[in-house]
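Here we describe the complex-level prediction in full. Unlike the single-chain runs in Section 2.1, the three entities below were treated as one system.
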Amino acid sequence: MSYNFNFSVIWRQFDVILEALALGLVLAAISLVVGTLIGLVCGYAFRTNSRVLKGLVWTYVEFIRNVPLLLLIFFCYFGLPAIGIRVFDKYESFVITLSVYAGAYLTEVFRAGLTSVPERYVEAARAIGLKPWQTQLYVVLPLTFRIVLPSLSNNFISLFKDTSLAAAIAIPELTFTARQINANTFRVMEAWLTASLLYLAVCYLIAIVLRRVEKRYSVIK
Amino acid sequence: MERTFLGEFLKARERLFEGFLTTIEISSLVIVIGLAAGVIGGLLLVYGPKPVRFLMRVYVDVLRGIPILVLILFSYYGLALIGLNISAFTAGVVALAGFCSAHMSETFRGAIDSIPAGQTEAAKAIGLTFRQRFVYVLLPQAARRIVPPAINTAVEMVKGTTLLSVIGVLEILLATQQAIARNYMVIEFYATAMAFYFVLNFSLSRVGAYFERRFGFIKY
Amino acid sequence: MSASPSVSPRAEPARELLVARGVHKSFGDTKVLKGIDLTVTEGEVVALIGASGSGKTTFLRCINLLEEFEQGSITVDGDPVGYADRNGTRRRISETRLAAQRARIGMVFQSFNLFPHMTAAENVMLGLVKVKGMAKAEARSIAEHWLDRVGLAERRDHHPFQLSGGQQQRVAIARAVAMEPRLILFDEVTSALDPELVSEVLGVMKDLAKSGMTMIVVSHEMLFVRDVATHVVFLDSGRIVEEGEPHALFRNPSSDRLRGFLGRFTDIIGDITTR
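The structure predicted for the assembly as a whole is:
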């Protein structure tokens, strides 16, 4: 049993492949940003004294962490229109799902991050007369972001890998494209090796870049 | 005649139950194989000769760096290509078990590495052989450190079974979708599926938390 | 007044329990041991002293091969540790033989290294059951005997995290002694202890010395060294510079380096500048 590798099908479609890769990165990036906003708000919820608020956030987080992402994607794309929410196309639907998904994990990241900002900085800010919201905006948040930078990087890489599930609702990112090429040309190994290598390479590159950024900005606690 | 969710659910219950069993079957297989291979892999990563450690490192990093769905599809199309006439179920289990074992190997390696070197030295000093040191001193301590990450990985594997629906394996998600295709009760059936996964995974986490509390008194 | 060796009515000369010849060791490019020769006879309490980096701990760890050494030999009770000479080539012995050798050498560590998942009694029993093949019941009574001897009878079913540092170290000593080793190595066993816990451990070591156990002790506790050791060895930069009887050595060090080293301890052992 020998296999004749023929990567020409790959090179011919390389622009499509790269576009698909870029799409995945964009989807991941948007979800990270929106997820960060959700995670921040929910992270702050844990610093309030409201049992109700903390309970709601806890329910959200536990629910998302225990339910499969694919199921969430289908629920959002197929389920919501069935109860009248028809505004989303598949891209919007996916980004919303992935953002909500990211938000749950990032809630824990920011909850921990906000708590680990040393009290003395808040006290110093108060002492120079900053109002509470100013203290949060100019002192706590910048420090929090530096503290959680490594977690944010890891989450981004995970989210990028999770964009492969967009293939299930026919979004033309890398996994979907690889499957197309596989189906059209029967070049199984070439298609999937390329997809695998591209995912590996991109994740590795992101990790290296983010590590540089971390070195520059991250606080060593 | 008014169709109710309960009515439709009862109609679909056989298929759904079949899906439920398949999900449990896949999860159990994957977690057990992953654990066993993970222990071996972890040992190789810590105690193996340099070339073996390098190969294991590559194996772990590759399997963890590729999205699970890609692994599953690669396995499904690739294994058929090399002449192995295996079912979608087997291909899926192979891919998931590979992923699980990569995670477990890394977890186990981390657990062993985190045991202070002094433990091995003290065990050596009283004359224990390598096997004895591992079984009586290192393994009991590593086991306690493994529980939280292993439970996380187990939960990820249960969630990962849904991806096998993409290659046609009749687990809960696919069974749910088939039921929906017949009765159009989209929200109800998806919600039921979500509830099921939530209960299953949440229970898994609670069991893990119990074990952590019971045996986690090891402090240095 | 030095500690007296075991009260043995035998007339034969005490046997040599440790013979180290020409031990050399490097960590990468750094030569840490530059030819150590040492003989320890039965019942002696030998103290290894010196500045950090002098090689005393490294040499101690070579004795039971926790550190490999490239040149030389260390023979414990007639059995060369770790390496055998086969037709002129120096070869590493098997793991099984090494384990058996280590079972005859006890060691107590600076950071205690008790097994946290076992009780104090179980810590002491492990070697007895798994290495010496004793039945559990017999091992348990031996363990309880030694825990009692170190003053921890009521703590035998406690886990290490429930014990203070001094108590943990005493369990560690019981663990080593219970194996009935030929000699016991002590690696700065009080350095990690809070000051008020040091004396309880030194007390146990003193009793052990009195009972005739052969001990090799790396320590900074100069009072203990002076009063309990039968022989003091001063190391500097990987070599033995001076050795001798503790009181004589401390009162009259011959080398400048030893004098300088002892000068740091004047408030403990008194001014040692020679008259």
